[in-house]
Amino acid sequence: MHGARRKFYELHANHKSEVSGQALAYIGNVEREVATLSPEERRRMRQEKAHAVADALHAWMIGQRQKVPDGSAIAKALDYSLKRWEALTRYLDDGNAPSRHNWVENQIRPWAIGRSNWLFAGSLRAGQRAAAVMSLVRSA
Q: Which pTM does this prediction carry?
């Protein structure tokens, strides 16, 4: 859900969009209550409560998408979430899965930034090899 949240957050921060503010409120409610629970309790709570909130968010997004013009920033944020809905909500069925992926992003950020810098490691081909190997090592 974090990827969808980021799109709406950026839209809200830059344009103070009312629709994006509403989306952020929905998304925030999904995980607020279960953050400190054990994985099994988290899965149970997600099934009992968060699924209903996520379903309401999905229905709301579909309704909002019909109201906004194609190509607008809010349409793009809604389309991003709707196209990836299954992947964005997969964590609801697994208590071990995090709702946010900040930790993972922070772990791979140096490697993702470095990949473009390392393309100039002697030659283009050497840089591409180094980037591939480092990406593999970091993500394995």
A: 0.58
